[in-house]
Amino acid sequence: MLFTSFEFVAFLACVLVLYYLIPVRFQWILLLVANVFFYTHSGLYGLLFMGVTIVTSYAAARIMSAVQYHMDDMVKAHKEVWSKQERKAYKQQIKRKKRMIFIGCLLVNLGILAVLKYTNFAIANVNGIAALFTGRHSIARVNLVLPLGISFYTFQTMGYVIDVYRGKAEAEKNIFKMALFTSFFPQLIQGPISRFGELSQTLYAPHRFDFRTVWFGLERVLWGYFKKLVIADRIVVVVNAIVGQPDIYSGFYVFCGMLFYAAELYADFTGGIDITIGIAQMFGIQLAENFERPYFSKNIAEYWRRWHISLGNWLKDYLFYPLLRTKFFMTLPKKLKDKLGKKRAKQVTTFSAMFILWFAIGYWHGGTWNYIIGSGLLHWFYIVSGELMEPLFVKWRAFFHVNVESKGFILFQRVRTFVLVMLGLVFFRNAQVMDAVRMIGRGFMGLGTELFAPGVLSGLSMDWIECTIVLVSLLFTSWISVKSQKEDMREKLAALPLAVRWAVLYALIFYVILLGKYGPGYSASEFIYQNFKV
Length: 534
Known about the structure:
- By secondary structure, the chain is an all-alpha fold.
- The protein has helices at residues 6-21, 27-40, 44-77, 84-134, 150-166, 175-183, 187-190, 196-203, 211-242, 252-282, 300-306, 309-324, 327-340, 342-365, 369-399, 407-429, 433-442, 456-459, 464-483, 489-494, 498-515, 530-533.
């Protein structure tokens, strides 16, 4: 059930009306029922795997919590009897039990994700290696159906289990509330990856109807539809034509294809998040922001602090920092210190852990090398090379008397970062790594100015009228994005006179209705991000 379908709009309207009509103590139950209905719409197959995740995560958290409480009680009761060594031995025994439960839960749930999503990736690599030595493939690919949102809800629930294991979150006593946390329907397609301690504060709380809250949420949903239907779904055809055929187009064609894809990706991703957060707000539920004007970033590290924020934070908190605290990475600088020096040894250690982090980011998006390179290892290379060359950059800036605070230099940094991101997107968009390499190479073959010849754009399903709509819409979106840095545009709109406020809203509504790519005979393309979350 896509967000852009009339079926979903009708479903959402019914749930919203019922949500504010029933007694507030039953609201979370209604949301759970809505989640089950939404998820079973994609098939009962996926519900089975989600059920396993819910039950195992709930049971593991409850058992770990019970074991911890039992240990605290025992230590307290025997405080005067046990020696220091006895207390320490008992605590270590309990910690081992908790660790076994914790690891077992991770293995089950991450194992399900790995088998369903990454089996064919493993088979492809084994076949590739076998082909080098035998000249033939030895293992056939398997046809596995991926449940909707499995990457998302697995990471979200595993984050909850890890927090309980660390003692940073209390185990939820109601399994049905745990099920609601796992399956909250607006998040299943787009995210963000929520933390239990944050989402539970508003997810389970009673919410009485508040016109301003519902209206602000509706405005954000409308803004998401504007990005998705007017911009992303309008230029996807051109992207498919240019980026999807690397051996046909060259020169300026390639540059335009990369630019179009960057615009489509941004409008699709952020549009979906706007719809998700807006829907949640209509129910009085607060979700974390997932994008913060990423294309305005001055470097790659900043870009990833702004792009898919919840995924980056999840992997840093649950993968990167724990890696650095392992015995191997704690002792590595000492082993390398004599050979490389203290500074270099520390850098090698950090960069090695970062390599695993960025591999995981690319791997999460999909089990193919184009994702691992395009959204992972290439960005690792950008960051590492930037760190290593920073002393040289400092000397260059000093030699040429560059004012790093000037608007011109900041603009240069943003353009440079955007170009580097676009190169990664070439790998991200092409199914095969070599197709991406060929496409980048063909970008330097000729000017490709025939793009502006009469009839060429219309042949790509993008005439000058369509180009004008896209350009105006992108400029408007960029303007709103810049203005939103200083103030909430919905608050500013609410402060306008009633007639002006309604005129603006009606203009946006009719803009989406008249220019959005949907209607009879047209099926809105699936959100791009859904392909990475399943």
